[in-house]
């Protein structure tokens, strides 16, 4: 069977299908949106005007009709989280409880999330202990004083203070976060010692009784655990990372973990070329056509899971007149008048946020009459409509849940 996509929904669908014993191939066109994401896994933070929710399952009934969670049910959500937990192992926390944790973002907001990297754990907003946030003058992704002020305004039960210091090594003004991480990985020599020792000495001078210190998520890449351990030891307090925007090291690391899990599960991966067309017969997809450097290449398909993402991930196309699903031409309902796609308020209830294919009970995309387009085609993740994942804080959860269920159903069919 084939899974089309390269993000968290596609990876989950492929892993779920592999558990059934199916032979699975993942067709990934380009780098996934995971590298643009925070690395946090949100299941449901807000629903029906309520939030932040301490228990995601408590908000499921308040979600609107047609939401993907109503299709897969709570069991589907749990199945997705189980697959995720097994894929990432000890690198993530949160699997011990059904409750959300309150994690700070790089802007100083407090976000309810179900799973979070181990490096983030000491900085939970629900934990006690005064906090010093450290930003670097050459790294614009994180303004520590502003983040600390926002945390304080949010009413966290501890004191938060932010400082900005110079990084020991000078880089170009447009240096990416990975360059800072590599310098810490290699513990490069600088004036006064090494990068790690000078960072620790500089921050130690700023400490004023705080019991934990947060840095932007750039504390090493290949040797991140060693970097955090050494800084913590030198400072004498726990050190944690604050999730940052793109390019996101935490997102990149999560992508690597998921693809390692795919390799271990025996999933074959074909990357770098888009699925552009298909051949069908008697209501079933028979072949998916991939564009390999302008050469159409067919892949036979007994079962197919479409997990190409939504408008942001280019799994849906839009112009001034319409919204379409470009690979199989699946129906995407939307208002005829483009002015009805959004609300005047920037944070309003925008219709476009819920655009996507409409799944049946088995996650098969349906046509205008509510009938499946194809008997053996299922959808997962952002290409599925009905959820405003940004407002709900549910993007990863929807991807995990629909991926787990679509992959299992497709895998069971493929092995019959």
From TrEMBL:
Keywords: Flavoprotein, FMN, Oxidoreductase. Its EC number is 1.1.5.3. Residues 2-398 form the FAD-dependent oxidoreductase 2 FAD-binding domain. GO terms for cellular component: glycerol-3-phosphate dehydrogenase (FAD) complex. InterPro entries: FAD-dep_OxRdtase_2_FAD-bd (IPR003953), FAD-oxidoreductase_2 (IPR050315), FAD/NAD-bd_sf (IPR036188), G3P_DH_GlpB_su (IPR009158). One of its GO terms (molecular function) is glycerol-3-phosphate dehydrogenase (quinone) activity. SUPFAM superfamilies: FAD/NAD(P)-binding domain. PANTHER family: ANAEROBIC GLYCEROL-3-PHOSPHATE DEHYDROGENASE SUBUNIT B, FUMARATE REDUCTASE. This is Anaerobic glycerol-3-phosphate dehydrogenase subunit B. It comes from Haloferax prahovense (strain DSM 18310 / JCM 13924 / TL6).
